[in-house]
Recover the amino acids of this structure.
């Protein structure tokens, strides 16, 4: 499974983007977002590493501001999490794509089951021949 | 009446000058990252000031038409919906100020990460919260515009 995710990310993240239409860019970023969810669920660190810029600004749903190394270490350390993403949309602004959606997380923390939902906003930029995520924040949804 | 409008007019004038200087700069030498950082810190301060004053004219110039705005409750708003929300009688901002900001520049995009302090009234109850925010600015036609803004009151 990890190899498949890594190959899909490699294919999507390195497709030439110069001649990409707005829709193509948005579709590719949304596909990368789906793969991100799968990579996080299967704790595929190598795949996640290829999606994030080295200086990504990452704000976790619990409010932690994290570096790329911290995100990867955290993903490795946590117990299994069930991740479902819905209502995702993307919008292009030149060589920038903003993607947003709702994240539903289910897991066990300190022996207790939890369920959380959050709205994420991710910024992707065209770099070289691919797309890379430079910022990500998930805000807990309050009802 | 004129006294009440004065700060809004001054703010709109300052933002207009800032936008004009951006256009002038676009036609001259390429900006250094330090200049971009200074510009964006200024634009962020203008954005918070305009929010506090419900200055929709200034915000209209700072926010892109395709803006994605996520408030601290996780609600996604369009530009029009966000500007309308400033006049919501159930939610009034008395004061909103950034107390720290870091700007990361990458060609025609800049990410601003920071914390702001907000006080106001919500359904008649006073509130005070500190939120972490990330704003994404894109350079369009020589001018920086905010294309995404997201905040969370969960800070750890």
């Amino acid at each position: 499974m990890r190899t498949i995710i890594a190959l899909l990310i490699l294919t999507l993240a390195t497709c030439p983007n110069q001649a990409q239409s707005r829709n193509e860019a948005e579709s590719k970023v949304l596909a990368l977002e789906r793969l991100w969810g799968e990579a996080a669920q299967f704790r595929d660190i190598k795949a996640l590493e290829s999606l994030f810029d080295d200086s990504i600004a990452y704000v976790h749903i619990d409010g932690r501001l994290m570096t790329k190394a911290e995100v990867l270490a955290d993903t490795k350390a946590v117990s299994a999490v069930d991740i479902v993403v819905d209502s995702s949309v993307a919008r292009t602004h030149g060589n920038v794509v903003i993607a947003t959606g709702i994240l539903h997380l289910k897991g066990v923390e300190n022996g207790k089951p939890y369920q959380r939902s959050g709205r994420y906003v991710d910024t992707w930029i065209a770099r070289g021949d691919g797309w890379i995520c430079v910022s990500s924040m998930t805000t807990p949804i309050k009802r | 009446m004129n006294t009440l409008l004065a700060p809004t007019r001054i703010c709109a004038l300052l933002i207009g000058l800032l936008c004009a200087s951006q256009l002038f700069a676009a036609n001259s030498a390429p900006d250094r990252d330090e200049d971009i950082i200074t510009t964006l810190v200024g634009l962020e301060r203008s954005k918070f000031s305009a929010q506090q004053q419900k200055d929709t004219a200034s915000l209209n110039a700072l926010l892109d038409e395709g803006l994605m705005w996520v408030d601290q409750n996780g609600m996604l708003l369009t530009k029009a919906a966000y500007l309308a929300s400033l006049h919501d009688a159930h939610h009034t901002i008395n004061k909103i100020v950034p107390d720290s900001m870091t700007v990361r520049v990458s060609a025609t995009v800049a990410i601003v990460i920071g914390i702001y302090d907000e006080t106001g009234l919500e359904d008649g109850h006073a509130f005070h919260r500190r939120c972490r925010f990330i704003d994404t600015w894109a350079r369009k036609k020589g001018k920086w515009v905010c294309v995404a803004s997201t905040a969370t009151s969960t800070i750890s």
Notes: DSSP finds four helices and six strands in chain B.
